From TrEMBL:
<keyword id="KW-1003">Cell membrane</keyword>
<feature type="transmembrane region" description="Helical">
    <location>
        <begin position="21"/>
        <end position="41"/>
    </location>
</feature>
<dbReference type="GO" id="GO:0009103">
    <property type="term" value="P:lipopolysaccharide biosynthetic process"/>
</dbReference>
<dbReference type="InterPro" id="IPR050297">
    <property type="entry name" value="LipidA_mod_glycosyltrf_83"/>
</dbReference>
<feature type="transmembrane region" description="Helical">
    <location>
        <begin position="291"/>
        <end position="314"/>
    </location>
</feature>
<feature type="transmembrane region" description="Helical">
    <location>
        <begin position="84"/>
        <end position="102"/>
    </location>
</feature>
<feature type="transmembrane region" description="Helical">
    <location>
        <begin position="158"/>
        <end position="177"/>
    </location>
</feature>
<keyword id="KW-0808">Transferase</keyword>
<protein>
    <recommendedName>
        <fullName>Glycosyltransferase RgtA/B/C/D-like domain-containing protein</fullName>
    </recommendedName>
</protein>
<feature type="transmembrane region" description="Helical">
    <location>
        <begin position="183"/>
        <end position="213"/>
    </location>
</feature>
<keyword id="KW-0472">Membrane</keyword>
<feature type="transmembrane region" description="Helical">
    <location>
        <begin position="133"/>
        <end position="151"/>
    </location>
</feature>
<dbReference type="GO" id="GO:0016763">
    <property type="term" value="F:pentosyltransferase activity"/>
</dbReference>
<feature type="transmembrane region" description="Helical">
    <location>
        <begin position="361"/>
        <end position="379"/>
    </location>
</feature>
<feature type="transmembrane region" description="Helical">
    <location>
        <begin position="109"/>
        <end position="127"/>
    </location>
</feature>
<keyword id="KW-0812">Transmembrane</keyword>
<keyword id="KW-0328">Glycosyltransferase</keyword>
Length: 538
């Protein structure tokens, strides 16, 4: 790092003029992100995944465990279980911050927002040496952070932006420092990244493959140093990952306990869905992304673009690049390929709650941009002018995307109005319940986060009376399932429009259904168009 500073006068150190200009640009980018977080922040920046992270952090702080509420109303005799879907890293970070007196739900937003503001500087530091000049590094930063993926996900209390910051920091330590200490720090950061998101297994494998490449491409006298760096990186990773794997084996009987229902989406569809999400993040043009992913000409175009880029690198581009740039391009290519493949294969094997979308691809677009701009540097002047126009077009699409507020609000009509209605209508019924009461709601994650109660998620409802005519269970089926699985405990249920099958117009329920509930011992506390509150006293 000392090489970027110039002495001036007696003991005075300043950045060179071009470096100072670059950091002013980075500051401007961060301010744009700050403005986006301020003006486009959602009313409730959390999701069901957020509820799991926050609850585990609260439990660690209050009870010394990492237990989580089971998803769904079964089992009814167990309030909390070990979570086998999400690793322990993020709840540990939230719990550490909450030790300062900050609630984990606030800490999750603070981590996400701070990561978004720091990411431009981290990307510039990590990629500057690889691309070779400030202008290209700044272009990668702008294209990466002012893109749909990060802008859409930055305001939420989730792991995504924090995970990307950790990945970029680890990559920067490897590409910039090239010392045993740098690799050791990279190993720790990579281990933390894996403890935060399972998908960062791709980072660990990419680092291992890069170490092999680094050894192979080094001269014989340098290989001893490469081995020392690699061992330091392994030690860094082991310090974080080994305790986590041992805990997994102790608690779950497996190093990787991640399990979900089998996926209902095939490999080909997931590949095309991934391409659509990736192209949307790259171009900020939904129509362009849909055309590329779901048409033969579009797929052929993207395939040929990747083929010719690889062919050009193989035939002549590799020799034109300097060592630092080759290292950066190699790592970026390996990590982008592994990460993308892992997302596609995982979604093909497991049934997530959503298809592949921007949240799953923006982790990899900065590395794609690094490859693209590194290639662009070594093309002919005519081709460079052409791609400069392409980059300008991308900037225009990004500006249009960022200005349009509709891209950053819920796509479900009246979502936030329904959310606020659920909280106001159900707070007294659900949030004030005694600890031994079994709670269930179709907005469970809302009450878990806001009220710190153990509310269970009711999902798959079909509110049509007279028996479901399509997928889903009837209200009586759900109620009887709860009643039969919760023994000798009082139960409270809250149903509100806007989530998990309860639509506007489904409430209030009919008098005949109320009578049927009463026969089973349930008390209808409230039955309006805004809420259905039920209680089973015991």
């Amino acid at each position: 790092m000392a090489s970027i500073w110039k002495p001036r006068g007696m003991g005075e150190w300043v950045l060179p003029q071009n470096q100072r200009s670059s950091y002013w640009v980075l500051l401007a980018i961060s301010l744009l992100i700050a403005a986006h977080l301020y003006f486009y922040a959602p009313i409730f920046p959390y999701s069901p995944d957020s509820a799991s992270y926050i609850e585990r952090a609260r439990n660690l702080k209050s009870a010394g465990n990492l237990l989580d509420i089971p998803y769904g109303v079964i089992p009814g005799d167990v309030d909390q279980i070990e979570n086998h879907l999400f690793p322990v890293g993020y709840p540990l970070v939230l719990a550490a911050i909450s030790a300062l007196g900050v609630d984990p739900k606030v800490a999750s937003l603070a981590i996400g927002n701070l990561s978004s503001l720091l990411l431009p500087f981290m990307l510039f530091w990590a990629f500057r040496r690889g691309v070779g000049n400030d202008s290209m590094a700044l272009a990668i930063v702008g294209l990466s952070v002012l893109a749909p993926g990060l802008l859409t996900n930055a305001p939420y209390g989730l792991t995504d932006v924090f995970s990307l910051l950790l990945v970029v920091a680890a990559v920067g330590c490897v590409l910039r420092l090239e010392t045993a200490a740098g690799w050791f720090l990279a190993g720790i950061l990579a281990g933390v990244a894996y403890s935060v998101r399972n998908a960062n297994l791709a980072l660990l494998v990419a680092l291992a493959l890069y170490a092999c490449y680094y050894w192979k491409s080094s001269r014989q006298p340098e290989r001893h140093a490469v081995v020392r760096c690699t061992l330091a990186g392994v030690c860094g990773v082991s310090l974080v990952v080994l305790p986590m794997l041992l805990r997994n084996f102790w608690v779950f009987g497996a190093m990787n306990p991640y399990q979900m229902e089998p996926s209902t989406i095939g490999l080909v569809e997931n590949i095309r869905t991934y391409i659509e999400a990736l192209m949307k993040d790259v171009t900020a043009c939904k129509e362009c992304a849909r055309f590329i992913a779901w048409s033969i000409p579009g797929l052929l175009t993207i395939f040929l673009a990747f083929f010719f880029a690889f062919f050009w690198l193989y035939r002549c581009g590799w020799q034109l690049m300097g060592k630092s740039q080759r290292n950066a391009v190699f790592f970026s290519g390996v990590y982008f390929t592994l990460g993308s493949s892992l997302v596609i294969l995982a979604r093909t094997r497991y049934q997530w709650g959503e298809p592949i979308n921007l949240r799953h691809v923006f982790q990899y677009t900065p590395f794609l941009f690094l490859i693209m701009l590194s290639i662009m540097q070594h093309l002919s002047c005519r081709m460079q002018k052409f791609f400069t126009l392409v980059l300008f077009g991308l900037c225009v699409f990004r500006a249009a995307y960022a200005i349009d507020k509709a891209n950053f609000v819920s796509k479900k009509p009246h979502f936030y109005a329904n959310l606020q209605n659920a909280l106001s209508s159900g707070r007294d019924h659900l949030c004030s319940a005694k600890p031994d009461v079994f709670l269930a709601s179709n907005w469970a994650y809302l009450f878990r986060i806001e009220c710190d109660v153990r509310a269970r998620q009711i999902e798959g409802l079909n509110m049509r009376e007279g028996g479901p005519t399509g997928p889903g269970a009837s209200l009586m089926d759900i109620i009887l399932t709860i009643q039969n699985n919760v023994h000798k405990r009082p139960v409270r249920v809250g149903l509100f429009p806007g989530s998990s099958g309860v639509d506007e117009g489904d409430l209030p329920i009919s008098g005949s259904l109320q009578h049927e509930l009463s026969r089973e011992g349930w008390i209808v506390v409230q039955n309006t168009s805004n809420s259905l509150l039920l209680e089973l006293p015991r």
